[in-house]
Structures are given as C-alpha cells and as structure tokens.
Specification:
The chain is α/β, with parallel strands linked by helices. The radius of gyration is 22 Å and the shape is elongated. The protein has a five-stranded parallel β-sheet, sandwiched between helices. It contains 14 helices and five strands. Helix 11 crosses helix 12.
Length: 320
C-alpha cells in the first residue's frame, strides 16, 4: 500500500517478531548479553521479564539464531494448561518427542531418557517457556522438581523463563523460594525510556526497510514517545498508521499533524495509545522499581561487579 509511495523494500513497522528488525537499545543489549552468557555457561534457570510489547519474543528469536547447531532447543508458548501432565505433553512436543497415549509417569520417563541421551551425545538441551507468568505456583514447583534430574549426571536441562512482570510477583512468593534460589540470571526489559531512544528506534526501522530515515519530522518523536510510553509494539502501531494516513494524503513526510490525528483516533477506540499510556507508564515505573529491588536484594555488591564481567564476556562471545 504505502511501501511503494515511500520507497520501502518491506514494511518497517510490522509487529512480527523479526530479529532483523530488532533495535538494540542499551536495555536490549544487556538482556541479550545475559541470555547469551546464560546459554554459554549452561545456567540452570534464567528469567527474562518485561511489559507486553517490550520485545522479549524478538530478543529470544535473535538469540536462537545465534545458537550452535548441536544445541537442542524446545520452545513452549502454550502455558495455560489444565494440568501439569498436559504441560509435559507440550514440552515433549517442543522436542518432537512422542507424547501420545502416555501417562504422566511415562511422559516424565520419556523426557528424562531424552535428556540423558542428548547429554551422552554432547548435545545441550535448552527449554524455553514463553508467557511463563501463566504457569502458576504449582506448575513452577513441578518444573523445579523436573530440573532435579540435573543432579544425577550433570546439567541435563537448562530452562529459560520469559514472561510479563507478573512472573516476578509469582516468583517472590514464599512457596517458591527454592525455585528463586535456582535462578542464575534475570533481567527486566523495560520500554524505551526517552524521546532520543524512540527516535533511534523509528529511524532504525525505517533504514532497515530501505526508507528515508528523515521521513518522520523531528518534532514528532517526543509526541510518539509520550503517546506510546516507549513500548516498541505501540510505537510500531502508531507509526504504521501514520504512514497509512500520510499515504492517503499523499504527504512526502510525516508531520506532527498526522501523528496527532492518529493519536486522537486511537484514543477513541480500544487502543492503549494516547492518554491511557500515562497511567500505564506509572504502573510500569512501579513494576520496574520492584524488579530492581528484587535484583538488589538477591545480589551482593560483588555479584553486581560480576554481572558487568558477565556482560563483557557475552559481548566478546557474540563478536567472535
């Protein structure tokens, strides 16, 4: 539609989690470094949390593309199950294992045998669980019990949990203290924190799509950031709609008038873009502070210095 008019090779603001369009903000770089190092170090549990639309899934796909071919990876996205037995079936399905007509005990046995077999072959196994906040206390506790197989022959299974901030609220519960103690690395991925990062994000997307990085006028970026709260998914939605409006009016640049019209129209609908982001941003600030408090209380000062070393090591690994 507007791609030809603005000389794009592709849609710049699609919400499909495409690693090629992943803008590496300082926070995304840190989250990526932690994920890469956790995979390299074979950490038992790693947790990545963030608000809806912050880019967690895209970040995951970027990491998966860089993994060695001998790493066996299973991704589970359906976490709203009626029983842990059903959840086990999803896990086996993620690794292309037979899970039909088996009891819970047989499912467990099938998975453990697979882990031992891959361990003997020198193939690390990593289980990634997306939307992990839906698992609840009972399933997380059973997942911890499942990881106990690691103590028998070494680290057979690595687990990466990805979810919304509610996941950390869940992991803070006293009943999950043993689970929380097994988490080696964690990171909270917050929205883009200012206008400058929002501008860099939009221009990065425009460039990757083959378009003019000056397509959006300079004064639009502060408005875009305010209206979206810096959430990448909402930025995509606003900018994509602005391009549709600009094309309809045959405007060669996207100015503040177009952006404000999009925001006004979105505020009339169910979209969270606009005034609704003001209260949402306050809620995110509280959650970000809570997540930071969680990290500070669980790590001594020397651990923070170690984390910096971890990030440097991960970046060097990525460069190689």
């Amino acid at each position: 539609m507007y791609e030809a008019f603005y000389n794009f090779d592709r849609q710049p603001f699609t919400n499909i989690p495409d690693p090629e369009l992943l803008y590496m903000s300082p926070q995304h770089k840190r989250a990526l470094s932690i994920l890469q190092y956790a995979l390299m170090a074979r950490a038992g549990f790693c947790v990545i949390t963030g608000d809806v639309g912050a880019g967690k899934t895209t970040l995951l796909r970027s990491v998966l593309q860089s993994l060695d071919a001998n790493v066996e990876v299973g991704l589970v996205s359906n976490t709203q199950c009626d029983s842990f037995e059903e959840f086990l079936r999803w896990i086996l399905l993620a690794f292309d294992l037979d899970q039909k007509d088996q009891s819970k005990v047989e499912l467990y046995d099938t998975f453990v045998k697979y882990l031992i077999e891959q361990y003997d072959k020198g193939h690390p196994v990593t289980l990634i669980i997306d939307e992990a906040q839906h698992l609840g206390y009972k399933y997380l506790e059973q997942l911890r019990m499942l990881s106990n197989v690691n103590t028998e022959k070494g680290l057979l299974l690595q687990t990466i949990l990805v979810g919304q901030p509610e996941l950390w609220d869940l992991l803070r519960r006293p009943e999950l203290e043993q689970f929380a103690q097994r988490i080696s690395y964690d990171y909270f991925l917050a929205p883009l924190e200012n206008t400058q990062l929002t501008q860099e994000y939009v221009q990065y997307r425009l460039e990757k799509a083959g378009g003019d990085t000056d397509l959006f006028q300079q004064d639009t970026y502060s408005v875009i950031w305010e209206a979206t709260g810096g959430v990448p998914r909402l930025i995509n939605l606003l900018c994509d709609t602005a391009l549709v409006y600009g094309y309809a009016e045959q405007k060669e640049v996207i100015d503040n008038e177009i952006v404000m019209q999009v925001i006004k129209d979105k505020e009339r609908s169910f979209s969270p873009i606009g005034k609704k982001q003001l209260s949402a941003r306050k809620g995110r600030s509280r959650r970000s502070a809570a997540a930071e408090e969680q990290r500070e209380s669980s790590q001594a000062s020397e651990d923070v210095r170690t984390l910096t070393t971890i990030e440097r090591a991960a970046l060097k690994l990525r460069d190689r």
